[in-house]
Amino acid sequence: MAKPVVAIVGRPNVGKSTLFNRIAGKRISIVEDQPGVTRDRIYAEAEWLNNVFTLIDTGGIEPESKETILSQMRNQAEIAIETADVIIFMVDGKEGLTGTDREVASMLRKAHKPVVLTLNKVDTVEHSPYYYDFFELGMDEPVEISSTAAYNIGDLLDAVVAHFPDEKADKDEDEVIKVAIIGKPNVGKSSMINHILGENRVIVSDIAGTTRDAIDTPFTDGEDKYLLIDTAGIRRRSKIKENIEKYSVIRAFTAVERADVCLLVIDSTEGVTEQDKKIAGYSHENGKGMIIVVNKWDLIEKDTHTMKEFTKEIRNELAYLSYAPLLFVSAMSGQRMKQVLETVKFVANQNAMRIPTGNLNEIIGEAVLLNQPPSDKGKRLKIFYGTQAAVKPPTFILFINDKELMHFSYLRYIENQIRQNYGFEGTPIRFILREKDKGGK
Asked: Which residues are GTP 1-binding (predicted)?
């Protein structure tokens, strides 16, 4: 199940970034007492009462402003509103209701999303003198907080998570394989989707950044159901010249979170770039199934070693994705494109695979016999047993005597033994270490 998305919106200088930093637990947004400081959406993972969610900070909204920067900030806030599952609408409890607040409220009503009206800068049990004025907006009873003093933040988060979708409601989606097409702009993501679908549902253009939104396209292949998520190309901030591109980045990242499998599309004429590494890293950290698709292979002059050399380069540059299948295709000519969907289905199954506990412990036992665990100052690591705790990604709990004795290299060895027996191709594997017997007895 994808993490819910919560967006903090409101006019400039009402304290959105301070609240964002308070909830996220670290200072991420620039906080300055001047309207318009937060110009880009900033996002972070947050948690409240075992509810993990993505929090988005936005620039302030000035609905009627013709100034370029404020107009751009309005655009980014609109995209955050569209992306969000729940919206924190922040207003100033000291200044009171303004015309801009009314305009923002009008925007939010049109979004048809749950909204938690939040009066900031109220740090006492007494209501803001303007408290009842905000009932004019036709929203639920306002929550009064002070983001600076951390007053009533818990009540606010209680109200937010109450709107999160019920996990049971997403059971029908479990049968659908969700595939995010990710990569830099202009690498051929839209062409790839068009070839898979067999029809031109997505605009294809040679102009980088044509795809502004994350576009969902459901389709079936035999008895298998898929959802293809085409995202705006992600590029480095220094390269973003057209402002609307950076407004699409959050959609690309939320698409990764929603996906079961990510297709990282690399342009064969450019090779692996630093931005490819960053995009791949985000998918890897989120535990998604991964396939590396080298597109435009028809444009490369070949010799007998070309594919072998290119494979070596990718494996060196993306070493942490050694588990990811590698496909060389041409979305334009259709070369090897049939393999893409076949590999997606295979990787989705690997990402959702479970190992019986007995089989897992046989593998661990054999691994320990073949290669003794590390020791330190006469004390040796003991692995008592393991169990699989979750799928998507496959997650294993290892009960051991001392976490400090578990070297990274030995954990990687255990992972490799599991992969040799069960594959888990195309998916990262995660481990949770638990100390069963600290004394080592």
From this structure: 10-17, 57-61, 120-123
